[in-house]
Amino acid sequence: MKTIFLDLATINADNSHSTLDCDNVLTIGNFDGVHLGHQAMLKQLQTSASEQQLATMVMIFEPQPREYFAQLKSDPLAAPARLTSQDEKLALLSEFGIDTVVIAKFDEAFRSLSAAQFADMLIHHLRVKSLVLGDDFKFGHDRTGDSEFLRNYGLPVTNLQTITDTQAVAEKEPLTLQDNRISSTRIRELLAKGDLKTAAHLLNRDYTITGEVVGGDKIGRTLDFPTANIELNRIRPALHGVYGVDVVVLDAEGKIIPHAFDNLANEGKTGIAGLLEHSLFGTANIGVRPSVDKPNDWRLEVFFPEFSGDLYGKTLQVRFLHHLHDERKYDGLESLKAGIQQDVVDLLQWRKNAD
């Protein structure tokens, strides 16, 4: 999969020159989470590209538009929590065989494009011949751009109707669902209340976060619960609390490294096997750690029972499987230690029952 970083500051004013070597069918959006609604769009993109003998192209935005506007107001936490970081999003899109992903820098210049300027950029700079869009897609600084505008501009558009959760999971395990639109917002709401099961159905996979293990404040070590502090790569996460998780180690290409934890273990302390192959079971705390009194310090910390080894610098993918409870504030470190100890006991019991 080819990745292009689109910065208007580097594009010629007339958009007449393209470095691309093929014509494309394009879809546009945040694709945060790459959920079943997005997946339906990607499948239609593949179908349209095959019919027209064109390549597939997806345009995403960095930062996401609502993140940009929140930053303008000096209130970054006003933006929705991210489901997927840029790298996670790219990894998911690559699984669908997309030929090119355009990462558009969303800034003042980009948001100021008129609908006509935006369409010109698609035609001349990105070699777009047709598009696949949602039925509510709008663009241009005046919001006058839509599918009909593009058609009148000479760009054929295939519109995909909204996908609902009951349509998407009708053939799967029955859930208590309403006929609601599948959206990143809905999945954020599910994750926020710990409903991993329904979120997983709408994502078509368990929810995961991937990041590098970095240095922390080592509070867990002083409590006899040393944790791996995993980079979130987002302003704040979409879920909070204490979870049972499966964790794998990824290589530079995002592939799972077989038996990675066994090879990293010290003194034979190889930990407790996870539910998935090559994974290790862990207990995770994600959020602001209210007992430590650092309200804006969002962390993902994972404790691996019965494991000892150096994980610094490793890229871990954390798969959230069981929500135990929301974050709790404890009175003092001894109370916190007792709370963590009970969480580990409870989650180990869940792991035992999950076999």
Short structural summary:
The chain has 355 residues and is an alpha/beta fold. The chain has helices at 36-52, 65-72, 86-94, 108-111, 115-125, 147-152, 165-168, 184-192, 196-203, 219-222, 260-264, 333-354, and strands at residues 2-6, 24-28, 55-62, 100-105, 128-134, 157-160, 208-214, 228-230, 241-250, 265-270, 280-287, 299-303, 307-309, 315-325.
Structure, explained:
The structure is a single chain. This protein is α/β, with parallel strands linked by helices. It is 30% helix and 25% strand. It has a six-stranded parallel sheet, sandwiched between helices. A six-stranded antiparallel β-barrel has the order 7-8-12-11-9-14. Strands 10-13 form a two-stranded antiparallel ribbon. Helix 1 (36-52) links the parallel strand 2 and strand 3. Helix 8 packs antiparallel against helix 9 (196-203). The longest helix is centred in the C-terminal third of the chain and has 22 residues, at 333-354. The radius of gyration is 22 Å and the shape is elongated. Residues 170-174 have low confidence and may be disordered.
- Uncertain spans: 170-174
User: How does the overall form come out from the CA principal axes?
Assistant: elongated
The string of secondary-structure elements, in order, is EEHEHHEHHEHEHHHEHEEHEEEEEH
- Assembly annotation: single chain
Work out the strand percent.
Answer: 15-25%
- Give the termini distance in whole angstroms: 37 Å
Rg for CA atoms: 22 Å
